Amino acid sequence: MELNLETPALLLDEARMQHNMARMQERMNVLGVAFRPHVKTSKCLEVARRQLALGARGITVSTLKEAEQFFAAGVDDILYAVAIVPNKLDHALRLVRAGLRLTMLVESSAMAAEVARHGREHGVCYDVLIEVDTDGHRSGIAPADPLLLDVAAALTGGARLKGVMTHAGSSYDLHTPEALAAMAEQERSRCVDAAERLRAAGHACEVVSVGSTPTALSARHLDGVTEVRAGVYVFFDLVMAGVGVCETGDIALSVLCTVIGHRPLDGWIITDAGWMAMSRDRGTQKQVRDYGYGMVCDADGNAIAELAFNQANQEHGVLQWTGDIVDLAARYPVGSSLRIVPNHACATGAQHPFYYVLPQEGGVPRKWERFSGW
Amino acid sequence: MELNLETPALLLDEARMQHNMARMQERMNVLGVAFRPHVKTSKCLEVARRQLALGARGITVSTLKEAEQFFAAGVDDILYAVAIVPNKLDHALRLVRAGLRLTMLVESSAMAAEVARHGREHGVCYDVLIEVDTDGHRSGIAPADPLLLDVAAALTGGARLKGVMTHAGSSYDLHTPEALAAMAEQERSRCVDAAERLRAAGHACEVVSVGSTPTALSARHLDGVTEVRAGVYVFFDLVMAGVGVCETGDIALSVLCTVIGHRPLDGWIITDAGWMAMSRDRGTQKQVRDYGYGMVCDADGNAIAELAFNQANQEHGVLQWTGDIVDLAARYPVGSSLRIVPNHACATGAQHPFYYVLPQEGGVPRKWERFSGW
């Protein structure tokens, strides 16, 4: 495929993306839950519109910048899934006053009280979820912790407890269907437990929100859950292939790069995709198959098993030939194209201002903007 | 210091930056060479203007996007220090035709011939340096390689051989003054050797360009060198402190973040600076002192030795308390500020759309834009 792009360039295979979107939405439909995709992966309106068109109900964001950008484009039901802190409340207030149905997250009594105070002071009532810890990997309140009820009690006046939310991020460390199904059940049951404790204490707790790409695709049932969130499934990546929830052939993102030189005695090919184009994410390092800075493919996306992407500088990638001795400069001449499939779609995507959407029937790629920053 | 910023936010200490700039420029003046700073670190006009005001002659860039942005702002002497490939020549041509004195880099006969052909076809004569390999760390032609003269010979018609360029990037792996001085001398002498070979073959070779931050600051003399390039010195970072060419107190960049939660039983503090704010760069991992994802400081920039930044998710940082048992939530309450000094200034900077320049005498930080992408 000859694309006539300046490199490095982030390529998006729309057909694969649509397949990934449909797979997740269908699974959610079968499980009988609402689906609220996490748009931190794409940060792209064109992508989110397609998720919503397939049946997603609202979106999840990782920054208020994302909330602002997607709201400006017409998405009015947004969950900001990082615990809120005081310096972000004025920004949240502006969005709520402009008409956004924003849901915020808390995991401490202090912030629950502060959110309630801020809402009261400004004459609004914020919708709030309590973050629940179901796997010990990061933040949240354990279902049995007395703090859960204290936080709920603090959400009065300018804040309303809407429900509970958890993210079993430790699912990324697993790689068997059994372990993933068990983690999905743990995520579900502990989050439902937290909701039940709150209901027993008199709170309505209408929302029970769970999710990560691996658990969402591994859950056998989601009884008691009202919505699921997942992000990276939309593109997938090598880490997800290592976890076992996709094949490398499902991965919709790659970085187009160009051979800029060779070091024949070392078996090196130098390209113009360094860590600025790939990110420094080495997420496959701890997996069974370590892909270095990404899986090297030819211009059509076919993997070249003998090329290992072991070393990256800012704008240089160094690919190590691991096969039998060949004339690398003849096989991959200066100016020829390669594609690199990323370890982590969220991290690689964040390095680029655009997606170049691969044309399905030839022609020039379309450009879809993505945003960044806070 | 109370800054009233939404977090995470990239802070720039202008006084430290000015000190770093002056130190490098003075050293170059003493060594009697021109200085051409690499602006890939800052990607910021305000920063480059200050480098030029102190005596820099032209700039070095890592992408044609940088060349375009800085040229639009009036910088008209730019070295693009990544070997050129065919898909970038039309872009380079547009810049040259608009009046930019652009110097390009080649390291193969094929590209030398292609650059000359492109220039001839479009009625321009491109200025070209040959990349010389002086330490085996990445790209370039060894001084004694017959290829050096072949490449020079191919630069006729639409291209002109202006000189040679090298970057001793392996200096980043060193950490003693003796080893650094030896590498600086190796970089100098081998690059001068390449120039002499070219001159002996009848080429003028007016430019002999060397540099990396560690070698620039470690060279005892630079006889035969005409210009030095360095980038990260402008801000410095933990990797450079580990190499030994600065103190942590010289580092001008940090990421302001906010405590969003605690996990008391694990000794964890959760912040809103994850890898999106810091980058995934783990450059200190192989150094004597491994800082994880960065050096944790209080809001005034004083290091907190007991807090280790061991774990990062997209918008969450996990800091591990390593000291005696304390009440972490009382000492670092939710909503309180911390600052994280980065491993690698180029990588962390690239995650942010702005620098917030710390006010010298109180008041509100100024915002300096930075650009990204290709």
Describe the structure.
The structure is a homodimer of 374-residue chains. By secondary structure, chain A is of the alpha/beta class. The first copy, chain A, folds into 2 domains: 219 residues, Alanine racemase (TIM Barrel), CATH 3.20.20; 124 residues, D-serine dehydratase-like domain (Lyase, Ornithine Decarboxylase, Chain A, domain 1), CATH 2.40.37.20. Chain A contains 12 helices and 17 strands. In chain A, the strands form 2 sheets. In chain A, strands 2-9-8-7-6-5-4-3 form an 8-stranded parallel beta sheet. A 6-stranded antiparallel barrel of chain A has the order 10-11-14-13-12-15. In chain A, helix 5 packs parallel to helix 6. The longest helix of chain A is centred in the middle third of the chain and has 24 residues. The two termini of chain A are 36 Å apart. The mean pLDDT of chain A is 97. Chains A and B meet through helix 5, strand 10 and helix 10 of A and helix 5, strand 10 and helix 10 of B.
- In angstroms, what separates the terminal alpha carbons of chain A? 36 Å
Greatest interface and its participating residue counts:
A-B, 62 and 62 residues
Helix content of chain A: 25-40%
Structural class based on helices, strands and sheet pairing of chain A: alpha/beta
- Any idea how many domains of chain A? 2
CATH topology of the largest domain in chain A: TIM Barrel
The total of helices of chain A stands at: 12
Query: What is the CATH superfamily of the largest domain in chain A?
Result: Alanine racemase
Low-confidence stretches of chain A: none
Quaternary class? homodimer
Mean pLDDT of chain A: 97
Write out the strand line-up for the largest beta sheet of chain A, numbering strands in chain order.
Answer: 2-9-8-7-6-5-4-3
